[in-house]
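Can you please make up a whole protein chain along with its backbone structure tokens because I've never seen that pairing?
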Amino acid sequence: MFRSPLTLFRTLAFAEAVSWTLLIAGLVVRSTTGWAPAVTIGGGIHGFVFLSYGATVVLVALNNRWKAGPTIVALVSAVIPYATVPAEVWLHRRGLLEGAWRTKPASDAPDARWYDRPLAWLLRRPWVLFLALLVVIVAIFAVLLIIGPPVPKS
């Protein structure tokens, strides 16, 4: 399904924009009808997709050897409503989403990194990578749910 970094990144960038719509719709429903669960539902979906997009940014940045600048732009774009789509377009135009997954570590390559071997191992086993990322994302999501929503102190 996600045979390249481009397809995975593009899918999550679009999903993040859709999740913003759900969150904003939930806020509108709550303010017009008083039904608070609308924000809980939209916010929960948005939070999970937000964390998934962040994990995708890190994975693609490591695989495609991004420098800090594009990685930070991609991560910050998730905080601004709908900015992940223009960020994806910008990254694609710059050629930063091109190429295949690095499923074979090339220790003699000029751009070799210390994490190439474990990353290649995980990329050769997409279900293991997916489950590992899912466990990490769910754990972070659960901790954030326990902490609770950001509420201004009065």
The longest helix spans residues 5-33.
